Amino acid sequence: MNLKYALIAVSMCFSCGGTWAQSQIINAYARDNRSLNGEWHAIIDPYERGRHDMWKNRKPQNNNEFREYSFDEGIVLNVPGDFNSQLPELKYYEGTVWYGRYFDMPEPATGETLLLYFAGVANVADIYLNAEKIGHHEGGFTPFQIDITGKVKDKDNFIAVAVNNNRRPDAIPAMNFDWWNYGGITRDVFIIRLPEEHIADYHIRLDKRDPKLIHADVALSRPIAGRSVTISVPELNISKVLTTDSEGKASTSFKAKNLVRWDIDNPKLYDVILTTEKDTVAEEIGFRNIKTEGTEILLNDRPVFLCGVSFHEEIPQRKGRAFSQADAAMLLNEAKDLGVNFIRLAHYPQNEHIVRMAEKMGFMLWEEIPIWQGIDFGNDSTQAKAVRMMSEMVNRDKNRAAIAVWGIANETRPSEARNAFLAKLKETAQSIDDTKLISAAFDNSSWNKDKKCWEINNDPALDLVDIVGINKYVGWYENWRADPSEMGWNVKPEKPLIFTEFGGEALYGRHGNGEAKWSWSEDYQADLYRKNLMMFENVVNLAGVSPWILFDFRSPTRFSPLQGLEFNRKGLTSDRGQRKEAWYLMRDYFNTKNKDR
To answer: What is the model's pTM?
Structure first.
């Protein structure tokens, strides 16, 4: 990877689609932050009346004036948090909600910069500060920032954010997706105080193959040559001094003696400190090698079988978006108890608390943007959004050793436009970070009755990926075409294949009919899992399995009272945290796989 291409990719993306927000600073949580989390006043605006002047937050100036809106005495919403789960009348709401709050912020000293940082706003945000529009961003799952230096007062600054979660054909995701369309300021908001000349970006990683060679790229916020940047790894007795070029960038490579590589059994992280004359940033970084050879995935030169699971960024018991470290611990500890070493973060970049905690717990991660069915691949604007979202995701998490896979698509159909679209996403990810693998989840396999196997024919995207992901619900959406012990798979047999989705639905506590899908019984779900695991034994290039999904999750497309309404019940664990019979079956399977390592 060349940091030059990372910065060019992001700056180009921010010039398209009317996006004003700037590319995000790396490792924002480690900076000097002033939180804007907490209670925000809000106004529900289904007819978009507030676009006229609501953001000015005007007050009556005399007895002859009035205003037909008010933030001060309106409803209150918690930030971070989705608005759908906070008020009953907003449960199904898709539209605009205005958020507003006051804050005090002394002007920065000479030579300082203030950045307003949003970790995530779903899905489109227009930001106003003191009656001036300062930013726009589309994409609910990636961070953005706005330079507010010179725009704040010591007292009574007012920030307004118009948040809209309408589904649109040109959006990502688009019109139809099988999870709750949560809207709102769903992740942390804070103001970062920095030196005007600061460390804006860095990528420090182990070589793709050499277990002792570290590469480092650093970029300053300004294009100034001759600045010294020191990279220190105290535990390894490493201290390297770099000098920036005319673009304010510097790169180096160096050997590390006695390096302990990050691994699922020993998720070793090193303290890394970057220092300039005016700025210092501390980071925890793990170093590991990952690659594929034939049908195997090699982590640190050893084959690893991916014992995986997926989950949404949702706390089902609360029926709302996950946003905190406590939420991350709940989701990840349940995954840990299941015995997994791999998590597919479905179907969008999840919050940074989840990613960093997963890294410390030893999980390998698949991270993707929501290229989930129904995407308008022929629309140039849609592609520009996808490239920007991919750039934002990869830039945020490129230093994370836990990220094993950048996902470029889920359940898409071949076409000339789609194939070119996915190729562009792969190119975007690898231009920023080429130390991870590329994959996509395919659901277009077909049954060859003569060979008794599943195949995927004529899909050029299979050639784009390092690992083939297969979504196939045999026994649920697909009936069994033969005895599971006789069913084979012939999909890119020269590459590793993982089952990224399989399973079926069950309502916790319902038992009895183990033969009928419509029973929603744990018995049927568990039998379905047993048969799938039997089928997997016939897959010669099998490198991992990841059942769908860890928890029952909210979906507005589910209407059966037997199913429990408004939930996709494919979870191994119920929305109340109760483990179904299939959970124990998969735990035993994973424990066996882990013992075989």
So the answer is: 0.94
